[in-house]
Write a structure and sequence with these properties.
Layout lengths: L3 E3 L5 E3 L4 H12 L5 E2 H8 L3 H13 L3 E6 L7 E6 L1
Antiparallel strand pairs: 1-2, 3-5, 4-5
Helix pairs in contact: 2-3
Length: 84
């Protein structure tokens, strides 16, 4: 079973990644010169935080964004992203 979908313009995206949503997330990132976190992207775009996180992981795999981990005293690091 093929887990990738073919788009009209021959671009192949993995299952769960939609071209329109990807363009919304990329548009938000392109408007920012500094690092931005998933919550802020979600607030600006109206896309659910969980969905934004999935798209950011996809963009990291594709090496289209830079990840900045901010470590606090306790808990998980905060992740911020910006376009390369």
């Amino acid at each position: 079973m093929n887990n990738k979908k073919r788009l009209k313009d021959e671009e192949i995206l993995p299952k769960g990644i939609d071209k329109n949503t990807l363009n919304i997330v990329l548009g938000c990132l392109s408007n920012k010169k500094e690092y931005i976190d998933v919550d802020e992207i979600s607030n600006l775009t109206g896309v659910a935080t969980k969905t934004v996180n999935r798209y950011m992981n996809y963009l990291l795999d594709e090496e289209k964004v830079i990840l900045n981990n901010i470590y606090g005293k306790i808990g998980r690091p905060k992740k911020e992203y910006k376009l390369k």
